[in-house]
């Protein structure tokens, strides 16, 4: 829909098959809806890749009380940029997906938790919800008795990265400080307002309408055996045409870089991330690894949100990892000591190494700190923060050790890696 005129409007969406999936879904029972999503093989697109239909089935049997759907639109990890563009270009795909999902789980109130900084996206989402409601698309068929209308609340968060963690998001949505909760209980049992709750990513829910508009078999025919369907691959960095590429799972990074016009002229690929700043780095050796969940894990990284950041031979790994750790240190919620203190220590050491003022043993100290954080923090934030450090040292140890005597800016001048400078020079 991104190339359609006024693609964000209800008129444009319906002209291209919008809400046909919802119309078919109204003829199915809740068990049939959940079964169809299971059969499609749809996996969560927020990072973990957990089977979506299976997640829905974890809700306990109805007890007469409310249950909720919460859509995680708090996209904020460095390099990740698929959900916000989708909401800008095609918010009705999310609303149709919310309507089908709500029918499947017996919910009559859904929430979309959005980053508050994206005010333009927030306004567009509110307008789309209003269009759907006025068109009668949310009127009946929701709730445990199937006789309710659907309420969709778009909530603007305050810009905390930790709120991308589902339980911290729920606390924030309830008006508390965004801190992760102890699990169990899991949200499926005691989530929003201590009621059964499904928490899904924007892209996960946006995939649902296509499954019902076509068929589960149609969806499962794409991708690989265990990573079926298609998804958004966000290619950024040192390629000629960075952008969003919609493709089946199993495509390779080599193919995507070719689609993006290749590495910028006169340079070679140095390293890249398959799933954003929290995933282990890859190099040219992994360009032909299929981009599906199992293959990427088998190669030593994670597919996560498919934030494919490309860095060429002008880039200092130390500089990149330092910027990422600065982000994680700033965004640590502070609830647990390993993450709160460990990210601060890592930042101090990395900034020394970047400036060429490293102390003897700093690289080994970084490795020791990552060992003290990994698996010991309250949530997955700590593991995310240490991943680029561990991976960077494992792949490019000599560059980190060079920081004992030489600043990164001397080894890799800033201007050399700047895409802006290249653009200005080309214009001249």
UniProtKB/TrEMBL annotation:
<dbReference type="GO" id="GO:0046872">
    <property type="term" value="F:metal ion binding"/>
</dbReference>
<dbReference type="Pfam" id="PF10589">
    <property type="entry name" value="NADH_4Fe-4S"/>
</dbReference>
<dbReference type="InterPro" id="IPR037225">
    <property type="entry name" value="Nuo51_FMN-bd_sf"/>
</dbReference>
<keyword id="KW-0520">NAD</keyword>
<keyword id="KW-0479">Metal-binding</keyword>
<dbReference type="GO" id="GO:0045333">
    <property type="term" value="P:cellular respiration"/>
</dbReference>
<keyword id="KW-0004">4Fe-4S</keyword>
<dbReference type="GO" id="GO:0051287">
    <property type="term" value="F:NAD binding"/>
</dbReference>
<protein>
    <recommendedName>
        <fullName>NADH-quinone oxidoreductase subunit F</fullName>
        <ecNumber>7.1.1.-</ecNumber>
    </recommendedName>
</protein>
<dbReference type="InterPro" id="IPR011537">
    <property type="entry name" value="NADH-UbQ_OxRdtase_suF"/>
</dbReference>
<feature type="domain" description="NADH-ubiquinone oxidoreductase 51kDa subunit iron-sulphur binding">
    <location>
        <begin position="318"/>
        <end position="363"/>
    </location>
</feature>
<dbReference type="InterPro" id="IPR019554">
    <property type="entry name" value="Soluble_ligand-bd"/>
</dbReference>
<dbReference type="Pfam" id="PF01512">
    <property type="entry name" value="Complex1_51K"/>
</dbReference>
<dbReference type="GO" id="GO:0008137">
    <property type="term" value="F:NADH dehydrogenase (ubiquinone) activity"/>
</dbReference>
<keyword id="KW-0560">Oxidoreductase</keyword>
<keyword id="KW-0411">Iron-sulfur</keyword>
<dbReference type="GO" id="GO:0048038">
    <property type="term" value="F:quinone binding"/>
</dbReference>
<dbReference type="InterPro" id="IPR019575">
    <property type="entry name" value="Nuop51_4Fe4S-bd"/>
</dbReference>
<dbReference type="GO" id="GO:0003954">
    <property type="term" value="F:NADH dehydrogenase activity"/>
</dbReference>
<dbReference type="InterPro" id="IPR001949">
    <property type="entry name" value="NADH-UbQ_OxRdtase_51kDa_CS"/>
</dbReference>
<dbReference type="GO" id="GO:0051539">
    <property type="term" value="F:4 iron, 4 sulfur cluster binding"/>
</dbReference>
<keyword id="KW-0874">Quinone</keyword>
<dbReference type="GO" id="GO:0010181">
    <property type="term" value="F:FMN binding"/>
</dbReference>
<dbReference type="InterPro" id="IPR011538">
    <property type="entry name" value="Nuo51_FMN-bd"/>
</dbReference>
<dbReference type="Pfam" id="PF10531">
    <property type="entry name" value="SLBB"/>
</dbReference>
<keyword id="KW-0408">Iron</keyword>
<comment type="similarity">
    <text>Belongs to the complex I 51 kDa subunit family.</text>
</comment>
<dbReference type="InterPro" id="IPR037207">
    <property type="entry name" value="Nuop51_4Fe4S-bd_sf"/>
</dbReference>
<keyword id="KW-0288">FMN</keyword>
<keyword id="KW-0285">Flavoprotein</keyword>
<comment type="function">
    <text>NDH-1 shuttles electrons from NADH, via FMN and iron-sulfur (Fe-S) centers, to quinones in the respiratory chain.</text>
</comment>
<keyword id="KW-1278">Translocase</keyword>
<dbReference type="InterPro" id="IPR050837">
    <property type="entry name" value="ComplexI_51kDa_subunit"/>
</dbReference>
């Amino acid at each position: 829909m991104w190339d359609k005129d006024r693609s964000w409007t209800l008129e444009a969406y319906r002209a291209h098959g919008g809400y046909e999936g919802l119309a078919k879904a109204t003829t199915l029972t809740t068990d049939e809806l959940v079964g169809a999503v299971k059969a499609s093989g749809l996996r969560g697109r927020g990072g973990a890749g957990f089977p979506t239909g299976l997640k829905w089935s974890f809700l306990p049997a109805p007890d007469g009380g409310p249950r909720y759907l919460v859509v995680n639109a708090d996209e904020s990890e460095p390099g990740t940029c698929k959900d916000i563009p989708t909401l800008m270009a095609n918010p009705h795909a999310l609303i149709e997906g919310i309507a089908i999902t709500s029918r499947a789980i017996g919910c009559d109130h859904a929430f979309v938790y959005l980053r508050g900084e994206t005010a333009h996206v927030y306004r567009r989402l509110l307008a789309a919800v209003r269009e759907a409601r006025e068109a009668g698309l949310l009127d009946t068929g929701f709730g445990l008795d199937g006789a309710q209308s659907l309420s969709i609340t778009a909530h603007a968060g305050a810009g905390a990265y930790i709120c991308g963690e589902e339980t911290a998001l729920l606390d924030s949505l309830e008006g508390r400080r965004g801190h992760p909760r102890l699990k169990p209980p899991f949200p499926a049992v005691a989530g929003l307002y201590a009621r059964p709750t499904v928490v899904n990513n924007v892209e996960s829910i946006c995939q649902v309408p296509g499954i019902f508009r076509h068929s589960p078999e149609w969806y499962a025919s794409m991708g690989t055996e265990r990573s079926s369907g298609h998804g958004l691959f966000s290619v950024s960095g040192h390629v000629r045409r960075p952008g969003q590429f919609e493709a089946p799972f199993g495509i390779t990074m080599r193919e995507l870089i070719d689609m993006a016009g290749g590495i910028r002229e006169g340079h070679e690929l140095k390293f890249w991330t398959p799933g954003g700043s929290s995933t282990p780095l890859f190099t040219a050796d992994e360009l032909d690894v299929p981009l599906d969940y199992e293959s990427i894990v088998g190669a030593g990284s994670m597919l996560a949100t498919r934030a494919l950041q490309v860095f060429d031979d002008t880039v200092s790994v130390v500089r990149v990892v330092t910027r990422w750790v600065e982000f994680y240190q700033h965004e640590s919620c502070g609830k647990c000591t390993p993450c709160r203190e460990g990210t601060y220590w890592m930042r101090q050491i990395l900034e020394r190494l970047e400036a060429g003022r490293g102390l003897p043993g700093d690289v080994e100290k970084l490795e020791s700190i990552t060992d003290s954080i990994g698996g010991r923090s309250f949530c997955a934030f700590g593991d995310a923060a240490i991943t680029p450090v561990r991976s960077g040292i494992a792949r490019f140890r000599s560059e980190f050790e060079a920081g004992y005597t030489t600043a990164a800016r001397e080894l890799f001048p800033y201007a050399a890696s700047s895409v802006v400078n290249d653009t200005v020079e080309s214009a001249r």
